[in-house]
Amino acid sequence: MLALFQKEVRSFLDSSIAYVAIGVFLTAMGLFTWVFPESSVLNYGFADMGAMFGAGPFAYLILIPAITMRSFAEERKAGTLELLLTRPLSLADIVGGKFLAAWLLVALSLVPTLVYYVSLYMLGLPEGNIDSASVAGSYMGLLLLGGVYCAVGLLASALAESQVTAFIASAFGCFILYTGLSSLAALNVWGPASVLLTKLALSTNYNALSRGLVDSRPVLYLASVAFAALFATGLVLHKR
Known about the structure:
The protein is mainly alpha-helical. It has one domain. The protein contains 13 helices and no strands. It has helices at residues 2-13, 16-35, 41-44, 50-68, 70-78, 81-85, 91-110, 114-123, 132-159, 163-185, 193-200, 202-210, 216-239. α7 packs across α9 (132-159). It is globular, with a radius of gyration of 19 Å. The relative contact order is 0.14.
């Protein structure tokens, strides 16, 4: 798995798509944090990164599908997927290597945003007047959410016949899981089941971590959703 992981990382770094997607992601985070009047911390008057963490899951809908869309769809188009499946690698090694490579790239895209935290820490009156626990919880939630999106993206890439189809399916699937379930729960047709739909929404569990009180339940739920998507990806590859 390590060899495949290294190969995928090199492939990502050699691709212009990864740099463009990360550039778009960081630009969006910067605009929401510092520029747009409705969310700018400079207009808000408080050392708070809520605007960035609120926009992050939606910016991920562009970044992560762009990273994962090529994982299996490109292999299939190039005719190398069958070759990969015949190598002395288990399906867990293949899926795990590609997942960890994509997740690492997502984690690296978050590193430059730490400059925002340092800036707000220094701009606070008095200096350091920022809820660091909430920021840490939000970063953890954003990283775990990125893992879920990567797993869903790999599943979409394994199912799709082209990268474009994989991108659209991944973005739509992640959107439904993040906010679609809670929106459906608002419809007055579910009765008591609406509470369950709300709890199953990724946004509910992500927002729970953003409060700064790290609870094991949202962490386990996000990890379980990612594992389920990766397991489904393995089943799709096994069928092929």
